[in-house]
Structures are given as C-alpha cells and as structure tokens.
Amino acid sequence: MSHAYALNEDVLHRGQGPQGRVTVEQPKVYTIVQRLPIEADGRLRYRIRSKLENIERVATEDQLSYCL
C-alpha cells in the first residue's frame, strides 16, 4: 500500500462533519508536509499545513482529495 499524495502537493481536506455544529465546513486547501508511516489500522496518514491559517494537522487519506 502506498501513499497517493506527494510532498508539497496541495489537497482539499474535508472536515469530519457537524459534531454539534450547525453547518458543515467547506473543504479547505492544505499542503502535504509529511507522509506518515502506516499505522496498525492500515490507514494512510499525512501531516498537512493550511494555506490560509497557521494550522497543521494529521489527516487520513480518505479525508483528502485533489485540488482542481
């Protein structure tokens, strides 16, 4: 199993849903800064950095999509 996204690639990150919020957040543009090792659950993870805010987070591959 290999990572689909490359370092420094721009991607869209989808939020995890409402979780008590009234509205669903629109996908935001992030840059891949690190591809993380595959963990025990088998999901691929990435460290991503926001293009608009000073935020870094870890996201699973299924939360990301290519920017158009």
What does this structure look like?
With 68 residues, this protein is mainly β. It has a single domain (10-66), classed as Roll (SH3 type barrels), CATH 2.30.30. The protein has no helices and five strands. It has strands at residues 10-13, 28-35, 45-50, 56-60, 64-66. It has a five-stranded antiparallel sheet, with no helix packed on it. It is globular and about 35 Å long. The N and C termini lie far apart (25 Å).
Keywords:
68 residues, mainly beta, SH3 type barrels, 5 strands, globular
Secondary structure topology:
Elements: E1 10-13, E2 28-35, E3 45-50, E4 56-60, E5 64-66
Antiparallel strand pairs: 1-2, 1-5, 2-3, 3-4
In summary, what is this structure?
The chain has 68 residues and is mostly beta strands.
Element-level helix/strand string: EEEEE
Average of the residue pLDDT scores: 87
Assign the CATH topology: SH3 type barrels
Strand content: 35-45%
